Amino acid sequence: MLINGITTVEKTFRVVCTVTNEKFVGWFDVKGNEVTARPVPDELIRDKYYVEENGDSYTLVIQDVKVADGGDYTCRGEVTEKTFTLYVECRYSVVSV
Fold first, then answer.
1. Predicted local distance difference test score (pLDDT) of residue 6
2. Torsion angle of alpha carbons 54, 58, 59, 62, nearest 10°?
3. What one-character-per-residue DSSP string does 59-90 give?
4. What are the CA-CA distances from residue 17 to residues 5, 35, 47, 58, 60 (Å)?
5. Which one, of 24, 13, 28, lies nearest residue 65 by Cα?
6. pLDDT at site 26
7. Are strands 34-35 and 24-28 parallel, antiparallel or unpaired?
8. Are 49 and 29 spatial neighbours (Cβ–Cβ below 8 Å)?
9. Which of 12, 30, 78, 93 is the most buried (most CB within 10 A)?
10. Distance between CA atoms of residues 64 and 80, nearest Å
């Protein structure tokens, strides 16, 4: 079951969803848009969001995470769906004067 995760800005974040006994429909971002990009062997992926498939496991990858990437992501099968909430921490530097 997917619940939530936390990361910091500028990191690459991954979350795995396992879909069994039904067809995987897709991962959907915080705006409800389907993440359709998939890695191509021997090519550098430039998409911010993409999905890696391995058997019944579907990994949503978010590159160069920003605060705006925080929110709910949904993994959908034909019958069920799982929601994952991503929290993004900001990194601030304190400068002494």
1. 85
2. 130
3. EEEE-S--GGG-EEEEEEESS-EEEEEEEEE-
4. 13, 14, 20, 5, 8
5. 13
6. 97
7. antiparallel
8. yes
9. 30
10. 29
42 vs 22: which has the higher pLDDT: 22
Residue 75: pLDDT over 90: yes
pLDDT value, residue 4: 83
pLDDT digits 0-9 by tens, 52-68: 999 999 999 999 999 99
> What does residue 93 show for φ and ψ, rounded to 5 degrees?
-105, 135
Q: 33 — alpha (psi -120 to 50), left (phi > 0) or beta?
A: beta
B/e letters for 69-85, b = 16+ CB within 10 Å, e = fewer, are bbeebbbbbeeeebebe
Is residue 76 within 8 A of residue 26, CB to CB? The reply is yes
All domains in the chain, ordered by first residue: 4-89 (2.60.40.10)
Per DSSP, the three-state class of 33 is coil
